[in-house]
Amino acid sequence: MTMPFYASPEQIMRDRSEYARKGIARGRSVVVLRYTGGVLFVAENASSALHKVSEIYDRIGFAAVGMYNEFENLRVAGIRLADMRGYSYDRRDVTARALANGYAQTLGSLFTDQQKPYEVELCVAEVGDTPDGDQMYRISYDGTINDEPDFLVMGGQAEALTTEVRRTFTDGLDLGEALGVAVRGLGSVGGNGTPRTLPANQLEVAVLDRTRGTRKFKRVEGAALTALLPTDSSAAPADPAPADTPPHDADGGSSNGSGGDASS
Amino acid sequence: MSIERFRGADAIPGVLRHAMSPGSSSFTEFLSTAAPDLLPHPHLVSDLAPHGTTIVAAVYDGGVVMAGDRRATMGNLIAQRDIEKVLAADEYTLIGAAGTAGIGIELVRLYQVELEHYEKIEGTQLTLDGKANRLATMIRGNLGLAMQGLAVVPLFAGFDTMAADPATAGRIFSFDAAGGCYPERYFDGVGSGSGFAKSSLKKRWRPSMSADEVVRVSVEALYDAADEDSATGGPDLVRQIFPVVMLASADGTTRVPDSDLDVVVRAIVDERRDQPGT
User: Fold this and answer.
1) Which parts of chain B have pLDDT scores under 70?
2) Does A110 contact B at CB distance below 8 Å?
3) Angstrom distances, CA of residue B75 to CA of A25, B48, B72, B78, B100
4) What value, to the nearest 5°, has the Cα angle with vertex B124 and ends A26 and B29?
5) Which of A119, A216, B13, B212 is least surrounded by Cβ atoms within 10 Å, i.e. has the fewest?
6) Interatomic CA distance for residues A120 and A65, integer angstroms
7) Which of the pair, B151 or A163, is modelled with greater confidence?
8) What is the pLDDT of residues B172-182, one digit of tens each?
9) What domains can be seen in chain B, in order of their start residue?
């Protein structure tokens, strides 16, 4: 007779958490923060085709880190759910809170029921008519959901980055200043101690702009992005990527010739 | 516990259950599995449901105009005086639905979500021809209703952002109840008064007209249709109800404000008063 296999529930959960956390930390970070005009998403992402930030609905945006195929699956599911709710009720009845709860429910169940947890961390943000109405939710791989008041940082060296952003973030930043906070924050990690300067082609930037019409989500790209980027170049020139990204982030591969590898 | 359950579509719990299963970028296809009851498929309603009537579209130098009257009828009665049958389908396209109003409006709503859904999931818009073909498929799905006399035949027009020459980028597509999709070169109309409206356009529309000129001839075409067809409403100067006139151009879709239409309609009425025979 073989010995029956036994692992305590605590051990199983700990192992799964560790597995998911490691996966998420391998990628590069995303910063989501409030500015006076709405919500700003900034992701370090060398790919212009495989997005980490996306539109979900009129007032709702989505950002994610971790395994691309897993969060892409969740992104599509979110768009489907939002569109179905908006179609069957009204466009104003689609809320970030409901969507965040849906994600939390799904990720929570996947975490306990499946052999392998999803290695993702999500942000669902909603822009209100006034800054008081802005909402940002962080949903973790195990279904934990948090309502963040000012900003949130996910993926990569999230702790160091959170400290940096907390140091520089203040209420009432305009778009350029908020982008500066996020970009300098992202550049402060991954450079082996020296700050990196991230050029526009290494960044994926989008806003939920409360002044826009029905659909508030807008990507900030090309010349518009370059014009907004902080101009201080006291930092070292671009160091394209922390070396440990490839397996988990679609954007990190050295085979990605158009990425930052050639630009330094 | 078994490994077979790992990431099986059935194993996805919660409200995202259907949304997490693999599928295409089509919202209609998703809805047909996740919530088929939400798809437009009304029961036999025949005369009880209000009908919408005349829609015209005509190209101009740099875009396309679509205009629709505001009347909905129920048998011999006027069901509504200010219904809006011409709508923006997305940023660059217009859609107008003639036929049973309830089904038409629902079809347009579904189509609007369909285009937005595709754009959000794929990160890019469908081409203008792709949008027209998609609409044809959705009409084909309503063929059973068409057989019962509840046909909805839309008119579709848009600005083709990929056209080589912006002057000729305004394009029109017409459809039949069986789902056929036909590109039109100059102008077209649908609905019970469309024969009169098209005859009117045939005499007044000219190539390379400006947007203002085409707005004028389109409103005039609706005026002619309302003159002959009881189910098409003319402009109502007393209640200030004017046709819905929309443009699709490189700047996107815009609706011509009522204040502008007031001027256009008064000019038409004055001209007709001078020539009562026309």
Assistant:
1) 1-13, 41-52, 143-151
2) yes
3) 67, 8, 10, 8, 11
4) 95
5) B212
6) 6
7) A163
8) 999 987 888 99
9) 49-274 (3.60.20.10)
Instruction: Look up residue B11 and give its DSSP letter.
Output: G
Give A-chain residues touching B121 at CB under 8 angstroms.
76, 79
Spatial separation of the C-alpha atoms in residues B197 and B195, rounded to whole Å: 5
CATH fold of A23-238+246-253:
Glutamine Phosphoribosylpyrophosphate, subunit 1, domain 1 (3.60.20)
Give the C-alpha separation, A108 to A120, whole Å: 12
Q: Which of A146, A142, A126 is nearest to A217 (CA)?
A: A126
How many whole angstroms separate alpha carbon A47 and alpha carbon A63? 15
Domain ranges of chain A: 23-238+246-253
In which residue are the tokens 């052999």 written?
A115
Cβ contact, residue pair A76, B121, below 8 Å: yes
d(CA B223, CA B217): 10
Question: From the CA atom positions of chain A, what is the Rg in Å?
Answer: 19
C-alpha A150/C-alpha A147 separation (Å) is 9
Q: Helix axis angle, B101-122 relative to B128-140, nearest 10°? A: 140
Could you read off the pLDDT of A173-182 as tens digits, one per residue? Answer: 999 999 999 9
Q: What is the DSSP letter of B123?
A: S
Is A109 within 8 Å of B30 when comparing Cβ atoms? Answer: no
Name B132's Cβ contacts closer than 8 Å, sequence gap at least 6: B156, B173, B181, B183
